[in-house]
Amino acid sequence: MTYGAAWGVLVLRLALGIVFVMHAYEQLVLFGPRDVAATILRQGFPASVVPLIAWYTMGAQALGGALLAVGLWTRVAAVLAMPTLFGAFFLLHLPQGFFMRGAIREAGERAAAVGYELSFLVLACTIAVALVGPGPFSIDDRRRAPGRRR
């Protein structure tokens, strides 16, 4: 891997990790697990599995984002985030069209982002990290045996 590519993977991993951690913060603290579960329920999932999906989503984003940012178990963290990203992309945002626009709500309600451009970008970046790996500026790279480094 060239020096520039190594820095590029680091920037990609850090940005993606921060986005995941902040999205988990938004879901856990600002919205709350109940609102997240309600959104998942509206996508047509059976009520019996909605709490599991909601907690998986928040956990995969919080823990997975932190792991991506530091480059620990990078490919595993990226792959574990993909089911929620595919769900968000295909079930929630794809029917809303490409462009992300804020939906205006009644007074007192939160505005919601619609459109799939951001979820498409995050999904593509996550797939790229899963394929490329953590890069040399990562804990994963430091953990490799000295003879196995690229």
What do these coordinates show?
The chain has 6 helices and 2 strands. With 150 residues, the protein is mainly alpha-helical. The protein has one domain (3-148). Strand 1 and strand 2 form a beta hairpin. Helix 1 (3-31) packs across helix 2, helix 1 packs antiparallel against helix 3 (50-70) and helix 1 crosses helix 5 (117-132). The longest helix is centred in the N-terminal third of the chain and has 29 residues, at 3-31. The chain starts with a helix and ends in a 7-residue tail after the last helix.
List the helices and strands and how they pair.
Layout (H helix, E strand, L loop, with lengths): L2 H29 L1 H10 L7 H21 L3 H20 L7 E3 L8 E3 L2 H16 L6 H5 L7
Antiparallel strand pairs: 1-2
Helix pairs in contact: 1-2, 1-3, 1-5, 2-3, 3-4, 4-5
